[in-house]
Specification:
Blueprint (H helix, E strand, L loop, with lengths): L5 E7 L5 E8 L4 E4 L5 E14 L2 E6 L3 E4 L5 E5 L5 E7 L2 H7 L11 E2 L3 E2 L2 H16 L3 H19 E2 L11 H13 L7 H8 L3 H12 L3 H18 L4 H7 L5 H12 L3 H7 L3
Antiparallel strand pairs: 1-2, 2-8, 3-7, 4-5, 4-6, 4-7, 4-8, 6-10, 9-11
């Protein structure tokens, strides 16, 4: 009998709209993608393999997964029976606020290692996930969340290193990233992007891909998925969301959405609890 893939999302509106995920996957393969916020997870069963920071990593049971905001990664099973995990996606702004306790305002942490092994921290994260899933007491929820995030940052957070590939025209890449975020629904040509920054189109593709880990068109799709999630949480019709986000039709949205989240937009909208 084929194992069923299960994923349930919750949005903690009282915690800066932090997304919470509980999932079990067997055959799911996530293509390389990015999240607007950080990805912080705990493996509950099985093992996951994922690419981050230029190499592959394996996270087994009790491992803590750490992916920085806007950092390219993928994911698939590393054990025969797949993997089960809990994860949350706090924004850069959440960590920037908390970091005032450590390094001054505006310095969100950089998690150097993709996988950490710390049983006490894993249990603290589990307590947080259980509280956010079961409790409606705002004070209890905020306490569990901020305690876990602060401890995580204290244990593993560092200052982001200066990346050598960003030393070459970082403003150019940042400009294109901002442009794609602002014009995510438009059908933009590579020639147009290159003209905006006065570069050869093929050089721009190499520069952008080397810096961001994805070519411009795939980065634009990631932005579209992020915007689609926000609209799904507002319970907008799927067909309208697809068109508003720049997808040619609903099936086009479905295909790309599932590659990133593991479920379809309809399943996401049905499972989401606020």
């Amino acid at each position: 009998m084929q194992e069923v893939e299960v994923a349930s999302y919750q949005v903690a509106t009282d915690l800066h709209n932090t997304e919470i995920l509980t999932a079990r996957f067997h055959q799911q393969r996530f293509n390389r993608h990015v999240h607007e916020g950080y990805c912080i997870g705990v493996i509950e069963q099985g093992a996951q393999q994922f690419w981050r920071s230029g190499s592959n990593h394996i996270a087994a049971r009790n491992s803590i997964i750490l992916v920085n905001a806007d950092q390219v990664h993928d994911g698939h099973r590393a054990s025969e029976n797949g993997w089960a995990y809990q994860a949350c996606y706090p924004t850069v702004e959440v960590f920037s606020t908390l970091s005032q306790e450590f390094s001054g305002p505006g310095n969100a942490p950089w998690f150097e290692h993709a996988v950490e092994h710390d049983n006490h921290m894993a249990e603290l994260l589990r307590t947080m996930f259980n509280t956010l899933r079961e409790s409606t007491n705002t004070l209890q929820r905020e306490t569990a969340f901020y305690l876990a995030m602060t401890q995580l940052m204290s244990n593993f957070g560092k200052r982001r290193p200066e990346l050598t590939h960003l030393q070459h025209q970082p403003k150019t890449v940042r400009f294109i990233v901002d442009y794609l975020q602002q014009h995510f629904a438009e059908n933009i040509s590579l020639v147009h992007l290159a003209a905006l920054v006065h570069l050869n189109p093929f050089y721009l593709v190499r520069l952008f891909t080397r810096t961001m880990g994805l070519p411009p068109h795939r980065y634009q799709i990631q932005v579209r998925i992020q915007r689609a999630k926000a609209m799904l949480r507002q319970k907008k019709p799927l067909k309208a969301i697809a068109l508003d986000c720049g997808f040619s039709d609903q099936s086009h949205l479905n295909r790309h959405f599932k590659f990133v989240t593991g479920i379809t937009p309809g399943q996401y909208q049905h499972s989401i609890t606020l």
